[in-house]
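Forum > Structural Biology > Help requests

Title: Can anyone predict the 3D structure of FAD linked oxidase N-terminal domain-containing protein?

Hi all, first post here. I have the sequence for FAD linked oxidase N-terminal domain-containing protein but no way to get a structure on my laptop. I'd be grateful if someone could post the structure tokens.
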Amino acid sequence: MEDRYKLIAAALGEERVKYDERLIHHTYTKLKSRAEIFYIATTLKELIAVLDLAYELKIPYLVLGAGTKYLTKRADIKGLVIKNRTTQIKIGAIKGKVSTSGLGIEEAQIEVDSGVSINKLNDFLYESGLENLRGISSSLSTVGGAIFLDSVLQAQASMIKVWDKGDIENVDILSLDKNKHVVLSVVFGVKARI
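Reply #1:
Sure, ran it for you. Structure tokens for FAD linked oxidase N-terminal domain-containing protein below:
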């Protein structure tokens, strides 16, 4: 095993880093590939930390959400596979009216971690009285992967927070580059459900 992999395990926790991990249980497409080294990030802080480590140690990496869009014929994936299981959804700003009957939200800015599934996001929006995002992506897709391909989601995205070679940046959809950026979170503008 490479010394660089031992450094990753020491920094992230020996019990959380897996070697020669089968991806069949970690992807919707049931990949039969194996990851040379595997880690599940459950918070943005963990995701940023593992990306920074991989970049610093020059370890090739692949970030997977639900794995609905990733297919490969390769038997093994060299380097680090990072499973993005980040889950935070928060209302950042609201526009509406206050009356004696309460708060009437007309629209809101929702910040969503990239590991959140479209289905979970829509459940949150429904419970909050907001319109669902009706993109073309599978409800199992994660926001971080779907934002690259789904024009409906792209149209509702007002800001995208990305990791780029150790830097955190805010970009718009026109600046988003799948060969350069790892999506951390997306801010969507959504209207109240009628």
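The longest strand covers residues 102-113. Residues 44-56 form the longest helix (13 residues).
Shout if anything looks off.
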